[in-house]
Amino acid sequence: xxxxxxxxxxxxxxxxxxxxxxxxxxxxxxxxxxxxxxxxxxxxxxxxxxxxxxxxxxxxxxxxxxxxxxxxxxxxxxxxxxxxxxxxxxxxxxxxxxxxxxxxxxxxxxxxxxxxxxxxxxxxxxxxxxxxxxxxxxxxxxxxxxxxxx
Length: 150
What we know:
With 150 residues, this protein is an alpha+beta fold. Helices cover 30% and strands 11% of the residues. The protein has helices at residues 40-44, 75-88, 93-100, 105-117, 145-149, and strands spanning 2-4, 12-14, 27-30, 37-38, 58-61. The longest helix has 14 residues, at 75-88. The protein is elongated, with a radius of gyration of 17 Å. The chain starts with a strand and ends with a helix. Mean pLDDT is 78; it is low at 1-10 and 138-150.
């Protein structure tokens, strides 16, 4: 996957063949290659960039803007955050943010703490309706947070 970015801006996902920005569009993700994406045009044309081959298994990725846990985070971003933590390592917020390109490292770390670490239903996330804090505010710390983070 090619990441295009400007200083202080989230990275953008580009097609690994034609380099067109495909962050906010439907794209094809190769499940056999590490971080390899194609736009639909290049996928349909059978584009290959070694080690990727057109016969590899794939999945379709599409932005899902509906929020699950926080109004400013779409469902696709929630999934990308969790995949980023799994692939890049917990706490590696800069690398996690570049994994999907729509949020900064500060936004990723804050969102994880707000929705997951401070959830009264730990290890489950806080449901959207339970987040009653305003922008930039943090809900009261759950009494079990210290034992969970150790």
